[in-house]
Structures are given as structure tokens and as C-alpha cells.
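Data availability excerpt. The first of two example chains:
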Amino acid sequence: MGEATRLLLAGAGVLLLAVILAPASCQSLVLQLTSPSGGTVYRTDPVTIAGTLTYGGTGIGGQMVTLTILNPHGSLFLQRLVSTDPSGQFSLTITVPSNAQTGNYSVSAFYLSARDDSWFLVADTSLNITPTSWTIGDYGYIETGDPVPDKVFYLHNSGASGRTATITYPSFLSFGSNASTGFNVDIPAGQTVRLIVDDVNTSTPGDFAGDIVVNSSGEALYVRVTMRVRDTLSPQISVQPSSWSTTTTKRSNASQSFQIRNSGTALATIDVQGFT
């Protein structure tokens, strides 16, 4: 009985050893990355690298998986060891540096002979503002003292994390009660914030220009603003050529092109009359 028991245990020992070693060479060993699955992230955004390690469809816990990320130039950006949980899952979350190179990043996971690959794209900034320029006044001019209707700018954050931006602007503009030197605004992930210019100083004649600047995490967006203020506005119309003469018959036609130019400071409506 004792010898039979020893043989039975020996057999069980061999069987157990086979189960432990099988993942090193068996085709049923599967390493799969579930995240990232491509797509775009932005500087300062979080990126999660996650996946599963299974053998014969069953998760393998307590194993060390090697994760590597290569930057757009193929150089090593990050390498980490992560442990699988009892169900064979693993996960690592990193934050894209504010000075990270833009472009495609290659992600690879390794365990023994098993491997899986993925990628993600790092873009320059998750913020954008519209419109990107503003010319104040019809025809680029405005009369001294005339009011300017409120102007709305839309600041959108397409990233996965919230952003804080500092807004600075030319002295002839006003954003409500915000300080003339600038103000801060929070833009939640996936949200749009409205920036409203509610007053423009048109009290002094002259040509004015400047930028509304949005600064966030070392990145900057610019909105060019121009304004030409005049005491009075009036059109100045010229037509070239100023005269035209031709001879036609019933069976012939004549045509002439005219260039109409407004070199003044106000819009003009032109009525064109002729003969047929």
C-alpha cells in the first residue's frame, strides 16, 4: 500500500510539473493587449496599457509581463514589469509628459514566447479655439466711439483630462470683470468653454492689433485681433476705365470690363446701370 501510494504521488508530481511548464511552449498560451487600441491622446493625458494572459482560455495569475513603449523615433520611451492578477489581467496607467514628442508610439507586451503589440498617437494639444482671428468693424474700420457687439470664442478640450488655461489679451479688449492682465479658466475633459469679449475701447482713433493668447501646460493658442478706428467713415469709389466708346451693328456685340474699387473706410452699395 505504501509503495502504491508513493507511485501515485510521483505520478501526480509529474502531472503537476507538466501543467506548470506547459505555458512556456504550448500554443494555448495567449497574451493580448486590450488597451490602448490605437487612437489619439494628448500631452498630459493619461494612457492605460492593459491586457490579459491566458492558458487554454483560463487566466494565469501571479506572472510578470514586460511592457515597453517606443517613441516615434523608435527609441525606448518606457519599460515596466507588471504582475497579472488571479484572472490573468494586468494594467498600467501613465501620464503623457507635457514635452512628449508628437507622433505614433509603439506598445508591446511580452511573456516568455508570447507577445502582443498596439500603438497610440500623441498629438500636440487637446485644446483648440474658434474663431482664430477677429477683424473688428465692417470693412475693417469702425467709427470713434461706436459700440462693438459681444464676441464669443469657443475653447474646446478634446482630451481625456481637464485642462487649466491662462487667458491674456490686448488692452483695448475686455472680458467682463476679469483682470486686465489676464485670467484663468478650467476646461473639463471633452467640454467647451465660452470666452466672451463684452467691451472694445473705440474711443481713440488709430490702428490697433494684438493677440488673445491661451496658455496651458507650456502650449499656446493665438487669436489675432485687428481694429482700425477713424473719426468718420466714408467710402471712396473709383471706376476704371472711366469712359468707353464703341461702334456696333445689329449682328455684332461689344463688351468691356470695369474695375470698381472702394479705397475708403466704409462699405458702399453700387448700382450699375447700362444699356442693352
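And the second chain:
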Amino acid sequence: RATAPTPDPANHPRTTAPAPDPTTHSRATAPAPVAAPSPARQRLAVAQAALLSALVGGTPVPEGFDRVRVGVQARALAAKRADVVGKVAPELPVILGESYRPAFLGYAHGHPMTGGYRRDALDFAEHLLRAGDVRDAAARGALREWWLERSGPAPRSHRPAARLARATRRVLLGR
């Protein structure tokens, strides 16, 4: 009786992989192009952007959303923003006193935050100074000094010579 030869696994067609060609380099294949989002996803993205704009930018509430609830949330977000700005720049509530919160809430209604809370504090102070909303001369002067101290590339010097140079420049240039 003859026995069948035992198959050699090294030569079996299912178990042998072709040897890699050393002359070719493995290249990562380019990612498959991303398909355009479906119309439903596009509508959802537009609705989300409109809702976000209504919450933080003061734009009208989009269709399909409860105007009262969105208004409540928008006011809560603006109040939270006022609290954080007051903590980041504690001088602002001190300088503005009782008018800080209403002034900031009015500012926040039409000015979404774009660069963080420190930038928001500077933008708020600049807005108040440009609009002339600070009636008290002492508060306006303190706010101006606070803004000038923090808005430049480096803090302003309080040395007498630097102060004299600033005053001279202000007189000569009419600023």
C-alpha cells in the first residue's frame, strides 16, 4: 500500500504569501475622498449654527426652537460670561461699580466672544470707551488707564521719564 506524500506547508498554495519585492517601496494609499454630507446633515448643521448664533450672538431664534427657552439660555450664558470676565479682570467690576453687569450684558448681546475671556474683557472695555457709555469722569479715566495698561504689547511704564515722554507726545500730537 502506498502512502500519499505529506504536504509541505511551506509549499502549500494557501499558506505561502508571495515574498515582498525589495525593489518596491510600500506606499500609503491616499485616503478615500470624503463624500459630501447628505442633505439631512447639511440641514442639521445649518440649524445648529443658527441656534448657536441665537444663543451667543443675539441673532433671531431659528424656526422650530422655543423662543422663550432659547432666550432664557442666552441670558444665562451671558450672565456666566459676565461672571467669568469679572473674575479674569476683577478691576472692571470695581471701576464700573453697579453698572458693570448691565453694561456687560448689553455688550454681550451683540458681541460674541471670539478670543477668550481676557480678550473679551479688553474688547468690552474698548467698547465702553469708544461708545462713551461711562458717564463718570473718574471711572472713565480709570477704565482708560486699565485698558491702556493691558492692550499694548507690553505694560506701560510708570517711570517719571516715560510718563513725561507720553505727556509730551500727547501734547505735540494732539492726542
